[in-house]
Amino acid sequence: MSKLLLAPMEGLADCVLRDVLTQVGGYDGAVTEFVRVSGTLLPPRTYLRICPELASASRTPAGTPVIVQLLGSDPECMAANAAQLALLAPAGIDLNFGCPAPTVNRHGGGAMLLDDPERIGRIARAVRQAVPVDIPVSAKMRLGVVHTGKALDCAQALEAAGVSSLVVHARTKEEGYKPPAHWEWVARIRESIALPVIANGEVWTVEDYLRCRAVSGCDDVMIGRGAVADPFLARRIRAVNVGRIDDSSRAAEWSELLPLLAEFWHQVQARVVARHAPGRLKLWLNSLRRRFIGADALYWAVRPLRSIDEMNRTLAQHGVLLSRAPLAHVE
Ligand SMILES: Cc1cc2nc3c(=O)[nH]c(=O)nc-3n(C[C@H](O)[C@H](O)[C@H](O)COP(=O)(O)O)c2cc1C
Questions:
Q1: Can 99 be counted among the known catalytic residues?
Q2: 92 CB near ligand 1 (under 6 Å)
Q3: pLDDT for the residue numbered 101
Q4: Is residue 188 domain-shared with residue 276, that is, in the same domain?
Q5: Those residues with Cβ within 8 angstroms of residue 174's Cβ, 6 or more apart along the chain or in another chain
Q6: What is the pLDDT of residues 263-276, one digit of tens each?
Q7: Ligand 1 proximity of 223 Cβ (cutoff 6 Å)
Q8: Number of domains in the chain
Q9: Are strands 197-200 and 137-141 parallel, antiparallel or unpaired?
């Protein structure tokens, strides 16, 4: 059975969005936003902050396994931190070789490592050796820094290091998030190694998903921004994969989404300081505007608002009923 994974998205998809999206269903697993490892041994609370699911057998409340992602460039330090993380029994540990952020790249981490397959191999091997065998260690890479010349070397180095699967985001660092994603390159990588390869990049619709699988030849796909813009995408893909027709209309989906927006807002207030909470909901609504007219109207209505009370009033006017008593605000 083909697997569908929810991508790591730092600053966009945290445990609250993972909870809501996996409640809708269709995902076989999710990966956390990266935890940056640089020189020190991180305390357990750092992992628990980014992945509170660790306290519930590394699963979202809906039961979807959550893998924790590490980002760093020093093999020994990554290994020591991975060993520490392993004590919290994550569903898996993923290694980030794709982040294009300048602050990360300046320290030689993330996508910059794609210029140095040998080092990528050393990092992955050190982590694999430091972690008990029952915890899978996987990796996520882009196609290269500026060009694709070392993509196959990187994938082969990861395979030789013992990782159990590889997500390929089908773009170079230089290409950022600009379409298209080069799914044909995922096929080349898949053909060069024996590991399960998971295709990633530019899947926004069921049609994209089917084309991505056909071009890459991969059974498994990871979805990022498309999952945030369309919380029902994974469920529709699952329906296609099991030969069922998901004929829920966009209007029906929007009605289903309203209580999920309420749930999201409720949890955000519990986790985020009051002055930042409105921004979090606006960020998600901004993604949802791609698919839902209702989200567009709501986005413009809340955009100028700064306070929780104003947000609550406007959300109620738009049918986002606050099903529970508001939580005490975090200050
Ligand atoms: C806001 C944002 C944050 C991201 N953070 C991470 C991250 O922490 N770790 C990672 O491996 N990839 C990260 N990515 C990359 C995504 O996981 C994914 O590879 C990329 O968005 C391509 O997939 P998509 O076209 O389906 O969005 C991030 C992407 C976005 C848009």
A1: yes
A2: no
A3: 87
A4: no
A5: 145, 146
A6: 999 999 999 999 99
A7: yes
A8: 2
A9: unpaired
Q: Whose CA is nearest to atom 8 of ligand 1?
A: 33
**What average pLDDT does range 119-138 have in this prediction?**
98
For residue 331, the model assigns a pLDDT of 46
C-alpha distances in Å from residue 260, one per residue of 92, 174, 232: 27, 36, 12
Q: How far is the CA of 174 from the centre of ligand 1 (A)?
A: 14
Distance of alpha carbon 177 from alpha carbon 199, whole angstroms:
15
Q: Which residue do the tokens 């020591």 mark?
A: 80
Residues 59/66, Cβ–Cβ less than 8 Å: yes
**Separation of alpha carbons 148 and 203, rounded Å:** 21
**Residues 39-60: what's their mean pLDDT?**
97
Q: Quick one: 197 and 313 in the same domain?
A: no
Mean pLDDT of 112-134: 97
> Which residues span the domain enclosing 121?
4-241
Within this chain, do residues 67 and 120 fall inside the same structural domain, yes or no? yes
Ligand 1 pocket member 283 (CB < 6 A): no
Whether the pLDDT of residue 30 is over 80: the answer is: yes
Instruction: State which of 5, 6, 9, 203 you would mutate to test the pocket of ligand 1, scoring each by most atoms of that ligand within 8 A of its C-beta.
Output: 9
Helix (H) or strand (E) segment spanning residue 225 = helix 225-229
Pocket flag, ligand 1, residue 94 (CB < 6 Å): no
